[in-house]
Amino acid sequence: xxxxxxxKRITGLQTVRVAHPLAHDGGALPYVxxxxxxxxxxxxxxxxxxTIQAAVPNLSQEERIWLAHSNAACHAKRINLFISPNNxxxxxxxxxxxxxxxxxxxxxxxxxxxxxxxxxxxxGFHWRxxxxxxxxxxxxxxxxxxKRRPDFVYDPACKYGFQQKSVVVAEAKGSLSRVRAKRAAxxxxxxxxxxxxxQHVIGQRxxxxxxxxxxxxxxxxxxxxxxAGAVGEQVSTLAVASPESIAVVAARVxxxxxxxxxxxxxxxxxxxxxxxxxxxQQQQQEELRRQLEHNMHGPxxxxxxGGPTDGGPRREREQRVASGRIAYANYESAFxxxxxxxxxxxxxxxxxxxxxxxxxxxxxxxEFWVVNDSRGPFWTSSSLVVPWWPWWGTEPFLFxxxxxxxxxxxxxxxxxxxxxxxxxxxxIAPIDIGSEPDADLDIxxxxxxxxxxxxxxxxxxxxxxxxxxxxxx
Length: 473
Prior knowledge:
This protein has 473 residues and is an alpha+beta fold. It has a domain at 320-472. Helices cover 28% and strands 22% of the residues. The chain contains nine helices and 20 strands. It has helices at residues 39-53, 61-82, 101-122, 183-197, 260-263, 281-297, 324-338, 341-351, 403-415; strands spanning 7-10, 14-17, 29-33, 35-38, 127-130, 152-155, 166-175, 210-221, 236-242, 246-250, 271-273, 319-323, 365-373, 376-380, 397-402, 423-427, 444-445, 450-454, 462-466, 471-472. β19 (462-466) and β20 (471-472) form a beta hairpin. α1 (39-53) packs antiparallel against α2 and α7 runs antiparallel to α8 (341-351). The radius of gyration is 21 Å and the shape is globular.
């Protein structure tokens, strides 16, 4: 994709602090501004959220694959048509005026969902699933039981003070209107998303997890090629409503930021803005200072799991403890994107409580192709032979999973063939290795290891993984 520059930005985040009790005390969530992302980053979030949305009980695996692939490709083509290729700020052109109202609303919603996923990824929530996966069961007669619920659930995996098997939910909204995409309107939209689809879910328990927090995320872009700040409005804007403190901090210009999640590992240099409501100013500042210090240093001191203090990248790859249900659902959709439908089928059978006893030997070994990259090997499958993703110019895309991430989840599967484990130990993918933000990178990768790669040349080697034994054969 010929974006100029190759990374777009969304400058600034409006934080909306809402009053709602929380059962944990984890401190402020640092959010590095601006939000920088490449075309591949956007496509990666778009494809995976579209795949997750197709995870509904009435669809077969074959139907889900078809729906996810066709929808994601279609949405990417439509978004590409209306994005301004030359504006540094992520923006849409006036071409969107040709769309009827319902098509414009649909496009805005898809862009909003993809951007919201980028925001959650930056905040360090790397594992996600369809809200239906956690099977919330409110009490009979509960007036909240008929309220609308958010589409996505994310696992903080014990980050920011969340306990094991705690999850957060996110509702995404988007607008491409000249009126409803203004900053004040987007702020109101995020608050509305939280109030109507998130707030009543916080605190609910499910079979495997408890909802410990939530976010209403709204994105807006005013059509046109005008520069940011023209007539008092930015080209694009973001707002996040949540009961938690979100500290918006400035990214260091010289810091190497290769991915969205990597940016979140850099130490705060300058607090730009944090909007708190119903909290005294002095208490707010002290809380922010204490929470940022905790997030930076962590329990092991500077340079530990909380992140380094010098603004540099992490020296060790961080390990997390994720909910088994969210992890299995996350990687089921990831394997579907990579064409590894046999591995995806194992995960789905375990998630649905059927186990794998009825799966024959011919459906118990998954073929993988190994694509070598500077960050290590990546695994993909049948999509390598016939890449389903549309070609943009002369470059086909290829979805793959970092080898470490693939091995960790597949070994967990072999140890839990009949039931979903309570938790899974997972390693954050190497998201903080790379080059300057304006480099023309050829890869997009997120913390769970799912990546979007260029089609490899020459053809890579292949391997076979025994899903029951949890090892290569």
